[in-house]
């Protein structure tokens, strides 16, 4: 019985370039009890201890019958990387995402012909899932694992669309997460990546004893610089003892300008210098995971240290015509990259990140009515870049009122925080909505104000209405406590014999000032909610007879749950005390790259 009363919490940081995992028993007490998985399968890793595995999968059909994932994918194999970014095609590109369009144009987001992004992500995650189970079983035995529920906490970028979050859950479930057969009930929840990082960093900071401890009223900016995305969120520390309490200060911001933006610029540079000699090479020779890009990864990581080389050489067998010797050594087949070349790749990306941080500081200070930010915590894989760290210190350090800190193992902070969220129940007391959410309504027609061409006459009350007006349930920046929900009351006219299944569309908008009309270019359709009256007693609603048919004035309420623990939008539709709506949203698929 003891075994059935406790569970194991697993943090999973599925990243654009690398993926990590951690676990802890609910018998654990602190962050130090969290176990980081430091051994991942595959011959391509260069050391026994590695915190993360490459987010990469290779299919048997492309590789002589060999199906591989992570470090099992060897240079020269046909593989698929950066798939995580394709889960969020439903978010419009911003000025911070420009490099994505170029990467898409040169085929860096290619997928197998018979698979979509969710399936490719799932195929990779299935390997991660099996490895997590194997690792935990070594600690507690196979039999104990079969009796122990697992609570998975997946981290997702805070900037992500609702569709992308749902796609992540779908990929995880297809991979096996939360679906073990037997007498245990596994669960999957989502946590924003910067919040996971904040949980780990603030928890350590409270107890570090090094004079860097946070205190009530401190403003902490967490900058999560990952492989694909940069997420920036600010938190106000409310209390440190007896328990840590903090809340989001203002609406976070971010962009798809992580470390792969440097890679994308590198690909573009190679294309500019070498033209078709580079772009026509087989993908397996230049794709992420190739010997060529593995060497560039090492160069990228060391860039910024005083001892770093001023000129770098990468072997690549190609035959460029008329290329200057400063870029290519024909005798040795070496691509030559100078310090200035590297700086030209890094600077635009770093400048965008710094710009985002500056904007978030301005927003946080405005919300607090004072200069509230006194600490920046830099986390994520790109947070290990010495060049990026120096840029942060040089930009924000000289003023003296903001301390820039980088936790030991910046890559591990997020996956530790995910497990800590489940272990201690730590979370931001109030999150901020990243966008406006609402439905469209029809208002009574107003002559000279509404377009008569689009108007309609209601079959029940005979009045003329103008459709397309937005009714926003939640505003961008509004505080969202745990379990927060909003309900709207809806009425719809129905004629006897017509269909009783109705569709309501949920919309969102990222612009600061919520528009009044659905046609506004900033309004995006999130998805559709299906409402079914087929099993509802219609006689309980107001009704009348017209032209031999019964007309009904149907009423129902739609409750949208914005603060669900699972981390995705949930909803319920009720009428006359009866559940008439599904519990998930059918997402509208809009591709922006």
From TrEMBL:
Gene3D superfamilies: 3.30.420.40, Actin, Chain A, domain 4 (3.90.640.10)
Keyword ATP-binding: yes
Keywords noted in UniProt: ATP-binding, Nucleotide-binding
Molecular-function GO terms, alphabetical: ATP binding; ATP-dependent protein folding chaperone
UniProt KW Nucleotide-binding keyword: yes
A Pfam family assignment: HSP70
Superkingdom of this protein's organism: Eukaryota
Listed name of the protein: Actin-like ATPase domain-containing protein
Protein's organism: Aspergillus puulaauensis
